Amino acid sequence: xxxxxxxxxxxxxxxxxxxxxxxxxxxxxxxxxxxxxxxxxxxxxxxxxxxxxxxxxxxxxxxxxxxxxxxxxxxxxxxxxxxxxxxxxxxxxxxxxxxxxxxxxxxxxxxxxxxxxxxxx
Length: 121
Known about the structure:
Elements: H1 2-12, E1 27-30, E2 37-46, E3 55-60, E4 71-78, E5 86-93, E6 100-106, E7 112-120
Antiparallel strand pairs: 1-4, 2-7, 3-6, 4-7, 5-6
Protein name: Salivary secreted peptide
Pfam family, one: MBF2
Keywords: Signal
C-alpha cells in the first residue's frame, strides 16, 4: 500500500501539466488539495478474452455505504505496457461529490489493468 501511495503521489505532482508521455488510458480529474487523504485505492485487473471488450465498474464508496468526504481528485492510472485502446470514464458523481462511479473498458482482446485512486477530505 505504501508503494502504491508513493506512485500515486509522484503521478499527482504532474496534474496541472501532464507529461507528453503520459500513458494512454490514464485519467486525472481534479486537484490534490492540502489535507487530502486517500479515500479509496484499488488495483483493478481482469484477464483478456479473445475478441471481447471487457468492462469493469468501480464504485466509491461501495454500494450501501455512506461517506461524507468530498472528492477532490480522481486518478486512474493504466498499468498496461502495450496499451492500444480502452479507457476509463466517470459515469456518476466525481470531483465535488461524495461518490464516484467509474467504468473501465479494455481494448478488444485486451486486459483491464488500472490503479484507481480517490482523494478528498
